[in-house]
Amino acid sequence: MLVLLAFIIVFHITSAALLFIATIDNAWWVGEEFFTDIWRVCHNNTNCTEIDDSFTGYATVQAVQATMILSTILCCIALFVFVLQLFRLKQGERFVLTSIIQLLSCLCVMIAASVYTNQREEIHNNNMFYQGTSNGNYGYSFILAWIAFAFTLISGIMYLILRKRK
């Protein structure tokens, strides 16, 4: 049981790390001469412009920013609640609260990645900050966001199924 518990904790910490990297790092949409994320646009690896309210798709980008931050916070809270419940719950009780919080984190990262996927063309084609960025590919931070979605979903389900045993 101790090995299973260690695996679950490592899996949850990995999910949180993936969420942090996907939220912070600058590689949601990349090309030869540029890279962008949900915070800024960089051309030639040096000329970076912060995304602000003068940006055409700012409301969409803010939605992605907010849901990614919320997802990361919820994932960290779920880990904290899991550790608390580990020592507070009686034998045989389920980690339902931890599961609910982790599944909410999963929902938030799914919303963020889905909104970015759906609105990416509008964001990159209709904005002066993104001139020349329509020809690119999804970067590793975007891919990590989807992997974090799968990890948080799996861990949320694991917490729901998990019972505290001797």
TrEMBL record:
UniProt-annotated location(s): Apical cell membrane; Cytoplasm, Perinuclear region; Golgi apparatus membrane; Membrane raft
Keywords: Cell membrane, Cytoplasm, Golgi apparatus, Membrane, Nucleus, Signal, Transmembrane, Transmembrane helix
Keyword Lipoprotein in annotation: no
Topology of the protein relative to the lipid bilayer: Multi-pass membrane protein
Molecular-function GO term, any one: kinase binding
Subunit structure: Interacts with PTK2; regulates PTK2 activation and localization. Interacts with ITGB3; regulates the levels of the heterodimer ITGA5-ITGB3 integrin surface expression. Interacts with P2RX7 (via C-terminus). Interacts with ITGB1; the interaction may be direct or indirect and ITGB1 has a heterodimer form.
Family listed: Belongs to the PMP-22/EMP/MP20 family.
Job description of the protein: Functions as a key regulator of cell membrane composition by regulating proteins surface expression. Also, plays a role in regulation of processes including cell migration, cell proliferation, cell contraction and cell adhesion.
Protein name (database record): Epithelial membrane protein 2
